[in-house]
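[stage:ingest] chain + small molecule (6-O-phosphono-alpha-D-fructofuranose)
[stage:ingest] validated
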Amino acid sequence: MFQVNTIERFILQHQPKHAQGDFTQLLYDIALAAKLISHQTNRAGLTDILGGAGEVNVQGEDQQKLDVYADEALVRLCDHTGRLCVMASEEREDVIQIPEQFEKGSYVLVYDPLDGSSNIDVNVSIGTVFGIYRYKDWETRGRLEDVLQPPRDLVAAGYILFGASTMLVYSTGDGVHGFTLDTEVGEFLLSHPNMRLPEPPAYFSVNHGNLGKWSPAVKAYVAWLQGQADGDVPRLSSRYIGSLVADFHRNLLRGGIFAYPAEIGKPEGKIRLLYEAGPLAFLIHHAGGYASNGHGPILDIEPTGLHQRVPFYIGNRRLVERIETLLIEEK
Ligand code: P6P
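[stage:predict] done
[stage:export] tokens:
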């Protein structure tokens, strides 16, 4: 009999020792949200879910209707279960409190409900990124301090990729595992167990249109990635979709690096620490790779604000460490 491994069965078989039902159920809740968002995303051209929502979010970006839908889906599925004590979303200025009438739980959910949403209307893959922390202090749980934790303290992280198929990839620190949504039965089935970053890497992902905004060290780094500088870099192909989760996922499967460097006048770069760089840094760490802000591990950065941005380099360790060397030499 072939083994059908649903995400529910897999989570139960691999739940970390600290997890009781709550942690496992929280992952189910996220998987359910993924199914709801996938359903809307796949119909995006057929229903009135395309286009702008007519609002600007805390990032100053035009909110897409699917952004709002994905954000609402995660809040409504998670705010009353008694599993969370607080949430934080890319789409909302402040932390999301658990409504008074519900019990506060032990976990903190940080998420970008739909990263790359500017690509929705042109039918390019988009994604949700999430991270899960435990509370800091039981009596005071539910405060900003529970959210502003370094990514190294994550107990789980993952992403959902809405592409040719819908995939949910997550780690609780015991390997990185990928599930593909079987739309016929409405289940996420294990399709990519124990994902490891392959060597040698195949791709590098950076927006060359920003060349004029980079420091000399970053320009030298990108030239090195292009193989123009010296022979010790395997031939890398350039692939940049403009949707972080899609670029990350391809590089995780084929090996490579995604870079969103600091820019002259924008030293913090573009990618958000809490709900983009941090969870992906956790995942790449458990897949054998490395993520840096150009000076050190993303995992060790203590967040100072919900929407803090960081320069971001993530992928095969040797490719990432090169930028750290070049930036030290630039000083
Ligand atoms: P640029 C999407 O807005 C996003 O945050 C990531 O998904 C993506 O990698 C990046 O921005 C693209 O930014 O400036 O190259 O268009």
